[in-house]
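Sanity check

After download, print the first record. It should look like this:
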Amino acid sequence: MQVERVDLDETSWVDVVRDFMPDADRVYEDLLETVAWRPSRVFRYERYVDEPRLGGWLPRERPNAALVEARRWIVDRYGVEVDGGALALYRDATDSVGFHRDRELKWLDDTLIAVLTLGATRPWLMKPMGPGPALRDNSDLTGSIDLMPAGGDLLVMGGRAQSDWLHAVPKVAGACGPRISVQWRWTSRRGRPDMNPGFYEARKFSR
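Expected structure tokens:
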């Protein structure tokens, strides 16, 4: 299995593993039909709004054998115990998630986030965090890269990638089939914790 490392900077990197899961189509169909997909809401602009994607968790009662093996591969290769696995479903071309960091981990100086793509091929962007305005501007693609994972591809972000870089799944023009991402996360809990609100936490601004 070929692992291509992309050095984002001196302390941040992402590993790209194409065709990581040969049986990706079957796993995709299994998750699409069996997971209890639920909408989620985020607090933005002084009110809650629907997030344009659905979420879920890998089932513990009837785990998918291929995903159990995928998690084992990640643990064996990187030597860390990742969590049980979160899911996101992008139903069509209008579903998306803007540039963000996974601040729910709190300790961002040394993390590992593995993202397995199932289903449609879509853009998957990363860019340097930059100053405050750039952080909130999803149209600012300065310094960005597009890893464009296909069904069965695995991306693994490590080092300070959650501290210094942003990632996004943007809307696409034209028709696009559903895409599922499976995410496993780990943090060393070293360094200074990020005390800013996480992606799903309420954010209030003075008027």
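If your output differs, re-run the checksum step. Summary of this record's structure: Residues 65-78 form the longest helix (14 residues).
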